[in-house]
Design goal:
By secondary structure, the chain is α+β, with helices and mostly antiparallel strands. The protein is built from 17 helices and 22 strands.
Length: 582
């Protein structure tokens, strides 16, 4: 046996025991007559000691050790004179009787410590070393825990886990596909699935009324902190259900995970908010409800006073920032520059200070009397000491800019604690969205999303006004899950394809297998998929899902550790009958 105990196992109750540990050398402290060595494995750290009573051979062996050497040490568990309350094994140490080097190590390119000196690119190149650090290791342990508890909950709800294929056909809707050339069928390509959508619907037709899968999905899209080209979903589908059945089951799952993983119990039902209300109040379909500052349209009280920027705007709206009337001119100028950034997109900002003494000070005093500003304050339900920030312009663009301004103020005022969680369901999304460039509708979710039953007649008269029987779960401004009731009727599905600009031939070619399946008794069904990586990062308090993926890609979609993607040989290209265009 290489070990009798792990490096995180021994306690004060083990005094006098003989133990053998195996692990990596974390650090060495030579204090002349005594040498202390910290041995680390996945489970923790144990201090081992070579004292002045040890043999010269043992002392010589210890002097040859270096950081990250893999060693086996054997000895007796003794009580530490200087205890360390920061580690679980801090009351004991192992008095060494033998040391064996199992493998040597070069000096690592960065320190394997919680606070390392390695930059992001360096740590990604040596990811196998980065994974030895506690923060990264603990992130993967959290991921494992959430996965196991998810399976436990869904199994208890009679779901069964079924695997679906990775090599499928390409579909033009949604993000770009990753494609895989077929050697056996030259000129033909597989695609990696963006989700198992059609397969889970086929499983419903097959009679498996409750399916789930922790499944890898692939999207060829630009990356950011919460995106990776390959990511994991908790993918689920149910038969003989309506929207509320699905929301109840998966609200239960999220509550269960919070309770067993985080120790947080939600007693009340999660809030439900329509897409229209979310956009009107927060400018986003994934609002952060940890703090207030909802939007208020101010066109009726601010237009018609000779201030052309407001008079000519489609939309004038603002937020009330509590307790910030004392903001300095410098702070207000910083906010003005913030909203002018290209990623925010506003042309400028107007402020109104509602001072503690009840007076008003505004950047547009020239155009608005005190009673005008008081009307604004009353509509905003502002109190003395509050600051009102106002943007104007095209409605959609201004709502989006107000959203960014609101989030910025929430951050500045420390109102977005990672220890506070505010879940909600957003429902009644638009079914279709118009693409001005292609002059056609696209599915806001996907082509298999059912419209709200009452809106079906609008297919013929006003497709853009149709609502989807769809829903997203949002926590702290992050969309962690989304789904819909599906179309189970062949005729309704063909209407949807027609609205998306598919000819009957195109629909048959791409989705004929699903339409044919609907001929044979498709049950009413719907489902949801949770971004598993996002859920892990939310539980772990990180902004990046990369921290919860063992071997992630960087923002350019590269794995710098294995240098992927890479060129392939001419022989492989010839086998696939592919030529590279210069």
């Amino acid at each position: 046996m290489f070990r009798t105990h792990t490096c995180g196992e021994l306690r004060i109750t083990d005094l006098g025991k003989k133990a053998t540990l195996s692990g990596w050398v974390q650090r060495i402290r030579n204090l002349g007559g005594m040498t202390f060595i910290d041995i680390r494995d996945r489970y923790g750290i144990t201090q081992v000691v070579i004292d002045d009573k040890s043999s010269d051979e043992l002392k010589n062996q210890a002097s040859q050790l270096g950081r990250e050497f893999v060693v086996q040490v054997a000895g007796e568990v003794v009580e530490r004179a200087s205890k360390n309350a920061k580690i679980d094994t801090g009351e004991i140490e192992l008095r060494v009787q033998s040391i064996k080097v199992l493998n040597k190590s070069e000096v690592p390119p960065f320190t394997i410590e919680d606070e390392t000196d390695g930059g992001d690119e360096l740590r990604m190149r040596f990811r196998y070393l980065d994974l030895r650090r506690n923060p990264v290791k603990n992130a993967l342990l959290l991921r494992h825990r959430i996965a196991q508890e998810t399976r436990k909950y869904l199994d208890g709800q009679n779901f069964i886990e079924i695997e679906t294929p990775f090599l499928i056909n390409s579909t033009p809707e949604g993000a770009r596909d990753f494609v895989v050339p077929s050697r056996m069928h030259p000129g033909k390509f597989y695609a990696l699935p963006q989700s198992p959508q059609t397969f889970k619907q086929l499983l419903m037709v097959s009679g498996f009324d409750r399916y789930f899968q922790l499944v890898k999905c692939f999207r060829d899209e630009d990356l950011r902190a919460d995106r990776q080209p390959e990511f994991t979903q908790i993918d689920c589908e149910m038969s003989f259900v309506e929207r509320d059945d699905i929301l109840d089951i998966f609200e239960g799952m999220v509550k269960f995970l919070f309770e067993v993983v985080k120790g947080i119990k939600f007693e009340k039902p999660f809030q439900r908010m329509s897409y229209a209300q979310a956009m009107e109040l927060y400018g986003s379909d994934k609002p952060d409800l940890r703090f207030g500052m909802t939007f208020m349209e101010l066109s009726d009280v601010l237009k018609g006073k000779g201030f052309s920027i407001f008079d000519n705007a489609e939309y004038v709206g603002g937020i009330c920032v509590p307790g910030c009337a004392a903001y300095t001119r410098k702070q207000l100028d910083e906010l003005t520059e913030f909203v002018k950034r290209p990623q925010v997109g506003a042309s400028g900002m107007v402020y109104i200070k509602y001072n503690e003494d009840g007076t008003f000070k505004s950047s547009v005093d020239k155009f608005y009397a005190a009673e005008d500003l008081e009307k604004v304050a009353k509509k905003m339900e502002a109190k003395s000491g509050d600051l009102i920030l106002i943007l104007s312009g095209p409605r959609k663009k201004t709502l989006e800019a107000l959203c960014e301004l609101r989030l910025e103020m929430g951050t500045r005022l420390n109102l977005r604690s990672k220890d506070v969680f505010a879940p909600l369901w957003v429902v009644d999304f638009p079914l279709l969205e118009w693409d001005e460039e292609e002059k056609r509708f696209f599915a806001m979710h996907h082509p298999f999303t059912s419209p709200v039953i009452a809106d079906i007649p609008l297919f013929e008269t006003d497709p853009g006004a149709m609502r989807a029987n769809a829903y997203d779960m949002v926590i702290n401004g992050v969309e962690v899950g989304g789904g819909s009731i599906r179309i189970a009727d062949r005729e309704l599905q063909q209407k949807m394809f027609k609205s998306l600009g598919f000819t009957p031939e195109e629909a048959e070619r791409q989705f004929g297998f699903l339409l044919n399946a609907f001929k044979y008794g498709a049950p009413p069904h719907g489902g949801i998929a949770f971004g598993f990586d996002r859920l892990c990062s939310l539980f772990g308090g990180s902004d990046s899902i990369r921290d919860y993926i063992a071997f992630p890609k960087n923002n350019a979609g590269k794995d710098v550790m294995i240098d992927s993607p890479a060129s392939i040989s001419q022989r492989q290209l010839d086998e696939l009958q592919i030529s590279i265009k210069k």
